[in-house]
User: Which sequence fits this backbone?
């Protein structure tokens, strides 16, 4: 939660006033003196809180906030008003809350940080209905409530070096980053420039955007030089747009959810996809010919979705035998179609290598779009761009892919990607 927005329409202002008059003030009657100054503070606290709360539920997420005493004292309305608002909304059945808790401490760029799970808030259906009764509808929420803007992320937050996970369910453990590491410093500088561009007023709208970060993996392994992982993710204080879902069928549910609410440069958005990205990159790194436009997952008598699923499992595990017995038929056919998969364990290229190259290609494409003044957001192997710039995005990503192999890696040629 940013607590930087507020009501901006008469309907929203009426909603805020109603909650103060029929929820907060009666709840606090007899507990504190009903001074006019307290009513002002309730208004200062509720407007920003309600704005973030409703925008959060519209994006399908809980809203998170630090609620220790020192933090609350700095929030709009200050501590007493914030506590009154929070307690009265819960007591009235308008607010759900999941308590936060302290986790541990870790070192980032030579400084010690306390890691904690923030308190999570979510409006109940009763509060959403109350808003609708006042004319504040979630589908046009931006008409009624502004969310404000986030501060640029700190340098120590824009890159993370994570240790190798022992199991899939293990918690990701951060590895301390040496402030004197020149590669780390260069990565921080590039991310600060990228975030400054994307966080400019009017660039990204419809979501709470708090900047991007890059997450690197296997940082505790010998030979780590920032060459594993490196994908782009949203900052924790903002909406995780890359994981949004509209709850529909698996194909395109994230794309549909983002298209419904996200706006870039004031426009509706479309996504530019790099299809079969890891499979294409793998062939390129091994200097093998490949054309992703030849429907790589279309194999006789097999569902292309199942073929794609197994290829992703095999690449993710660096194991051609991955997937178990249920994938035997798909495995056999796909291995004949892509002989390179049979040698996954021996080729020395794993999913973290592929993620790194994918992210570097995306960075090249984003740099080109930025040079043209076009807004964007990355989603692993895709770029979200304004609808009117979709064609430009396709061209830019295709050229970046080729140039990455021929110029950055110095290879004679690049595989043919499918960009659409």
Assistant:
């Amino acid at each position: 939660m940013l607590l930087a927005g507020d009501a901006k329409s008469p309907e929203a202002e009426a909603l805020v006033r109603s909650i103060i008059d029929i929820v907060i003030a009666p709840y606090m009657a007899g507990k504190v003196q009903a001074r006019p100054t307290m009513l002002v503070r309730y208004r200062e606290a509720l407007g920003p809180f309600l704005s973030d709360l409703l925008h959060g539920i519209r994006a399908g997420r809980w809203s998170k906030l630090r609620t220790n005493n020192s933090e609350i004292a700095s929030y709009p309305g200050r501590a007493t008003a914030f506590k009154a608002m929070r307690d009265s909304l819960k007591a009235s059945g308008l607010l759900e809350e999941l308590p936060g808790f302290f986790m541990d401490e870790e070192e980032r760029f030579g400084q010690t940080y306390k890691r904690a799970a923030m308190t999570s808030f979510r409006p109940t259906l009763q509060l959403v209905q109350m808003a609708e009764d006042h004319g504040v509808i979630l589908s046009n929420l931006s008409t009624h409530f502004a969310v404000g803007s986030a501060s640029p992320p700190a340098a120590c937050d824009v890159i993370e070096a994570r240790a190798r996970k022992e199991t899939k369910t293990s918690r990701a453990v951060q590895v301390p980053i040496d402030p004197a590491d020149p590669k780390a410093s260069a990565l921080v500088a590039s991310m600060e420039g990228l975030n400054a561009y994307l966080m400019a007023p009017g660039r990204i709208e419809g979501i709470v955007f708090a900047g991007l970060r890059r997450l690197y993996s296997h940082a505790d392994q010998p030979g780590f030089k920032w060459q594993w992982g490196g994908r782009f993710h949203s900052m924790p204080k903002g909406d995780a747009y890359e994981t949004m879902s509209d709850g529909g069928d698996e194909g395109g549910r994230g794309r549909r959810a983002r298209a419904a609410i996200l706006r870039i440069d004031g426009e509706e958005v479309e996504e530019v996809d790099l299809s079969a990205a890891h499979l294409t990159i793998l062939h390129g790194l091994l200097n093998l010919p490949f054309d992703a436009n030849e429907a790589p997952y279309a194999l006789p008598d097999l569902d292309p979705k199942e073929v794609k699923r197994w290829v992703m499992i095999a690449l993710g595990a660096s194991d051609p035998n991955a997937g178990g017995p249920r994938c035997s038929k798909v495995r056999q056919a796909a291995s004949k179609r892509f002989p390179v998969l049979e040698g996954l364990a021996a080729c020395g290229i794993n999913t973290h290598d592929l993620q790194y190259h994918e992210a570097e290609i995306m960075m090249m494409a984003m740099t080109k779009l930025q040079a043209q003044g076009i807004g964007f957001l990355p989603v692993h192997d895709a770029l979200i761009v304004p609808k009117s710039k979709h064609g430009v995005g396709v061209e830019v990503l295709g050229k970046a892919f080729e140039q990455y192999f021929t110029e950055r890696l110095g290879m004679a040629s690049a595989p043919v990607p499918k960009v659409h």
